[in-house]
Design the sequence.
């Protein structure tokens, strides 16, 4: 629940429903009400501070500690640490407290640093300068200090700091053009009008004389009603009053509250920890019961050298049993790998840099690299099942472009190619004319009929005149240069419809340039560089019901024309002649109708009557438009598109092949969004389309239905809606408000399968779904940085999503799943012999291993190899992962951390532990184990088991490694050497700071025995053999796609080496790779490549002999 909702509930239910008001009264400029007015208590409003961070300086420690101790392992080790402090246990409290402190500290530093970056981004916005009118003067304030009622002076191209009501502008008609891309994703310029009563107050002094109040509704998240938080205003200046600030702005109300995201891998880890905790409790309980059962015989009481005190003997048996139970818990607690969390945190933090360092995800145009805001979800990138994407600015470039137009079956495609005289008299233009029946060929027409020439030019003039485009006499907007006629003007076009701007710019490239609207006359520059003037008589504005707009103009020769453009479905029924081939076009049709003076008089009379109507004015205007826009002559059709981003279609196709379902959630209209889906290959031409929409055709009614989605479809019919959508190959949701996008994502997350979701967008209107999804990705687009700041990851372009998921996500999941399973496996191998040892030491809680080995096993001896593996392992070459997206399916649905695989690793760990313990035990059956007849003691026995253990778990990782570098060799063999050297030093020197020296000369004594060396080799081989055999059988009978490709890669490698010319360098490489294949992937080579392998070895031997 966000804070605004909480405040609402407190106001309503704690203060009282009768005190709740549905509107707010705002005094412009904070002017006090005049004397004698009704008593009024000013409402309290929040300041304009924006908060996207999770922690503050005061709540960081308690809040972060609470989140960390929600983890099962952290909470468990805290309990164990406290137990070790309270009672006498076999091991020191340092063995549990030090790793726990390290885990908590590292995690807190990482999360604190990430949240500091969010604070830094928030401060960049909150400290932006804003000009406020106070006492007739303009003062500069920080954005966060704005209050409701402040009168704000905005300059051109500045961003609105909060929700405003427009008082006046620098334009005489009180209008300004505003883009709302950060709200609804639409980058078009929308026209806003100042309040009629205040639009004449243009200076600071005049505005300061205003004594007025504003009655408006309380803040609500609906973006399409009332005032909108907008950005990028286009007029010289304006004056406006703040009505909603800070977290009460429409954009803030559409933010989804931040929650702690946890990956599927982490959830699996917690589940496994619960299982191992149950195993631990079972072990401790069994040993406690067996201890007292064994000591029930008086002859088997505590030995004489461990005689209990009288106080201990008098203690109640329940207390003694409980104390022993806790002591066994501490003895076996290493089965819960707290160091795994340290390694996982380091792997995530360090691994995230591979994304940021990836040169293929660097965009030269923007000069931006991929950014990792939250490294906790790296592996989740490899588990995505649903991708929710915005359209404008995410799939598209957020830039409408004129593609082509069609006149009498001939298609015109603007291109910057060689200058060609069209019909000998046309301008030196940059266009091709292409026959539509042979679209790919360029046809040059040297002779045309005069009536076609006139028809064609009338079409171009119609597009230059039938619009509401304004001409802006400036060079840049948002740092982007705009030009109309190259070398002649620095003006650019703005309009509430980006389609209109694209059409007018397209006509400019085809030779007809719209210049300006001056004194009710529209001026255009024709192909002969002659200026033509048309008097604008009437504008029949566009609306979503008619889906068309018209203008009535008078040419300089006195001819009257009605030009009309609109969707094909709205134009064709009104056409009496003309045709257009619309195949392959996203059609916007253009038609006209010549008017006689008498007909024009009838039109004027009809329009004036409708405009002056006091009742049902909109209805009468619609009826008048319907009468006027008929008997049209079709001129042609146009195609305007918001061009797709580079490789957007290829990325979506790859995601589909990888088994992901792509949903497009956009605030745009259905027709525009559907065209983008077809262009991006989300929809196919043969795709059956199912539409869920309203039966009413009014645009506002359609919005009302969609805005009530949460109360109707999503709640009452959620299961039916979800079932239909899940069986669709792709889903498109249009006219979606930000919270509705988040509700759709939440609906899929809450379904029975609980799929992993990813949301990607580039604007502030996408923040809610980015926060709601399991993984949120921001695009560094043209709609600000809100999405980037609130996302888990940020990428420059949509195409980079392909590598992020199919390569980085795949690698991260493979690596961390192996890390998790390996940690549990090696800890089972580590602690199960300790459990078995209790059966041979009278359940006396005697440790099998020395304290140094207990402490350093997970910290030093076995930690670095698995950490390095989890950072650089590449089981398949990344080029193959990009070319074959279906490999992503092999790791889908958390396949490598399922219960059967977890059970296999656990059983393998138990088997290895039994082999190590009982193998060493039977070898110790002859107590005169050394050649000099000296007997081995219990510490030598434990050291032998521990030595076999360290080598076995390390070689297990060696067998699982596919990608070898010098770093792997250094770390793996270096870890084993460090263990040997440490053991020699630990047992070879009398350390003065120790109060005991039980390990003195133990390791050297063990290594001096030949049978000890033989037992180590035999036990390691016996431990690893079942895993190798299992993999050989599985790869032969049930190979996965990944394993087939691995075998094929090694086959290609060996063949290439076999055919390499004889030289010493290739000989060394051949030998190196043969040994690598023999040692590392013996199980796959035996069955598939034994002939090639033998021939390669023979070839290597021949080269060596030569």
Sequence:
């Amino acid at each position: 629940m966000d804070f605004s909702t909480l405040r609402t509930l407190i106001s309503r239910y704690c203060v009282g429903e009768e005190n709740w008001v549905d509107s707010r009264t705002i005094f412009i400029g904070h002017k006090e009400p005049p004397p004698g007015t009704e008593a009024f208590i000013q409402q309290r409003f929040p300041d304009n501070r924006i908060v996207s961070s999770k922690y503050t300086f005061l709540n960081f420690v308690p809040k972060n500690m609470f989140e960390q101790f929600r983890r099962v392992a952290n909470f468990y080790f805290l309990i164990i640490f406290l137990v070790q402090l309270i009672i006498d246990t076999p091991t020191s409290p340092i063995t549990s407290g030090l790793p726990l402190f390290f885990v908590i500290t590292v995690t807190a530093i990482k999360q604190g640093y990430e949240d500091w970056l969010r604070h830094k981004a928030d401060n960049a916005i909150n400290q932006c300068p804003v000009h406020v009118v106070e006492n007739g003067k303009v003062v500069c304030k920080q954005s966060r200090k704005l209050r409701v009622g402040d009168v704000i002076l905005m300059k051109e191209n500045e961003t609105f700091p909060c929700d405003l009501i427009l008082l006046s502008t620098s334009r005489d008609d009180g209008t300004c053009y505003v883009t709302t891309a950060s709200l609804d994703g639409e980058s078009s310029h929308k026209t806003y009008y100042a309040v009629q009563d205040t639009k004449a107050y243009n200076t600071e002094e005049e505005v300061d004389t205003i004594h007025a109040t504003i009655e408006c509704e309380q803040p609500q998240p609906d973006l399409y009603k009332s005032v909108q938080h907008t950005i990028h205003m286009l007029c010289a200046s304006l004056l406006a009053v703040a009505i909603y600030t800070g977290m009460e702005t429409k954009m803030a109300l559409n933010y989804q509250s931040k929650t702690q995201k946890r990956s599927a891998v982490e959830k699996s880890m917690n589940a496994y920890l619960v299982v191992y905790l149950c195993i631990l409790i079972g072990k401790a309980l069994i040993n406690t019961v067996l201890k007292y059962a064994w000591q029930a015989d008086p002859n088997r009481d505590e030995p004489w050298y461990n005689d209990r005190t009288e106080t201990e003997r008098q203690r109640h048996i329940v207390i003694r049993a409980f104390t022993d139970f806790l002591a066994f818990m501490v003895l076996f607690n290493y089965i819960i790998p707290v160091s795994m969390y340290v390694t996982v945190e380091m792997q995530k933090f360090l691994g995230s840099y591979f994304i940021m360092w990836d040169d293929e995800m660097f965009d030269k145009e923007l000069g931006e690299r991929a950014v990792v805001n939250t490294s906790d979800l790296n592996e989740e990138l490899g588990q995505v099942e649903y991708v929710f994407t915005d359209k404008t600015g995410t799939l598209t470039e957020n830039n409408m472009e004129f593609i082509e137009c069609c006149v009498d079956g001939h298609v015109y495609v603007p291109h910057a190619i060689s200058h060609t005289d069209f019909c000998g008299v046309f301008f030196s233009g940059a266009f091709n004319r292409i026959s539509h029946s042979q679209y790919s060929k360029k046809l040059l027409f040297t002779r045309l009929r005069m009536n076609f020439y006139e028809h064609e030019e009338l079409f171009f003039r119609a597009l230059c005149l039938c619009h509401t485009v304004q001409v802006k006499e400036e060079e840049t907007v948002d740092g982007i240069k705009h030009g109309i006629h190259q070398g002649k003007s620095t003006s650019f076009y703005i309009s509430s419809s980006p389609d209109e701007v694209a059409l007018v710019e397209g006509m400019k490239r085809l030779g007809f340039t719209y210049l300006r609207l001056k004194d009710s006359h529209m001026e255009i520059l024709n192909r002969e560089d002659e200026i033509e003037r048309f008097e604008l008589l009437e504008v029949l504005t566009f609306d979503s019901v008619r889906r068309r707009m018209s203008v009535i103009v008078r040419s300089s020769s006195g001819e009257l024309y009605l030009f009309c453009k609109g969707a094909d479905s709205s134009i064709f029924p009104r056409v009496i002649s003309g045709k257009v081939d619309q195949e392959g076009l996203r059609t916007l049709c253009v038609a006209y109708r010549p008017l006689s003076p008498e007909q024009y008089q009838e039109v004027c009379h009809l329009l004036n009557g409708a405009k002056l109507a006091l009742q049902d004015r909109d209805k009468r205007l619609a009826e008048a438009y319907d009468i006027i826009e008929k008997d049209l002559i079709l001129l042609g059709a146009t195609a305007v598109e918001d061009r797709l981003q580079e490789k957007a279609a290829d990325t979506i196709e790859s995601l589909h092949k990888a088994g992901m379902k792509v949903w497009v959630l956009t605030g745009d209209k259905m027709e525009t969004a559907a065209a983008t889906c077809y262009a991006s290959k989300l929809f196919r031409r043969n795709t059956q389309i199912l539409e869920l929409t309203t039966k009413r055709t009014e645009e506002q009614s359609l919005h009302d239905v969609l805005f009530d989605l949460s109360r109707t479809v999503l709640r009452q019919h959620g299961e039916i809606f979800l079932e239909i959508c899940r069986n669709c190959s792709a889903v498109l949701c249009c006219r979606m408000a930000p919270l509705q996008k988040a509700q759709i994502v939440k609906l899929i997350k809450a379904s029975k399968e609980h799929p992993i979701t990813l949301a990607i967008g580039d604007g502030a209107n996408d923040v809610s779904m980015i926060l709601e999804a399991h993984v949120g990705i921001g695009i560094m687009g043209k709609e600000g940085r809100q999405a980037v700041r609130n996302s888990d990851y940020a990428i420059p372009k949509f195409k980079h999503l392909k590598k992020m998921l199919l390569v980085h996500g795949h690698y991260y999941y493979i690596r961390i799943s192996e890390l998790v399973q390996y940690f549990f496996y090696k800890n089972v191998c580590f602690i199960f012999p300790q459990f078995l040892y209790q059966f041979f030491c009278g359940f006396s809680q005697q440790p099998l291993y020395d304290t140094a080995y207990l402490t350093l096993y997970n910290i030093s001896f076995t930690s670095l190899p698995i950490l390095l593996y989890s950072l650089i392992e590449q089981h398949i070459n990344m080029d193959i992962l990009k070319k074959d997206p279906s490999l992503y399916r092999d790791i889908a649905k958390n396949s490598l951390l399922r219960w059967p695989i977890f059970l296999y690793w656990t059983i393998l760990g138990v088997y290895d532990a039994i082999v190590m313990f009982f193998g060493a035990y039977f070898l110790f059956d002859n107590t005169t184990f050394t050649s000099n007849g000296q007997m081995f003691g219990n510490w030598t026995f434990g050291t032998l088991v521990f030595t076999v253990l360290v080598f076995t778990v390390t070689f297990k990782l060696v067998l699982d490694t596919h990608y070898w570098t010098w770093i792997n060799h250094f770390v793996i063999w270096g870890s084993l050497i460090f263990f040997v050297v440490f053991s020699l030093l630990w047992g070879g020197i009398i350390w003065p700071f120790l109060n005991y020296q039980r390990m003195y000369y133990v390791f050297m004594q063990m290594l001096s025995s030949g049978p000890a060396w033989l037992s180590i080799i035999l036990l390691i081989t016996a431990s690893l053999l079942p895993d190798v055999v299992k993999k050989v059988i599985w790869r032969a009978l049930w190979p996965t796609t990944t394993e087939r490709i691995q075998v094929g890669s090694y086959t290609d490698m060996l063949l290439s080496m076999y055919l390499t010319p004889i030289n010493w360098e290739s000989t060394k490489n051949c030998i190196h790779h043969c040994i690598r294949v023999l040692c590392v992937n013996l199980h796959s080579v035996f069955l598939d490549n034994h002939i090639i392998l033998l021939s390669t070895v023979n070839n290597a031997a021949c080269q060596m002999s030569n």
Notes: The mean pLDDT is 77. The first helix runs from residue 3 to 15.
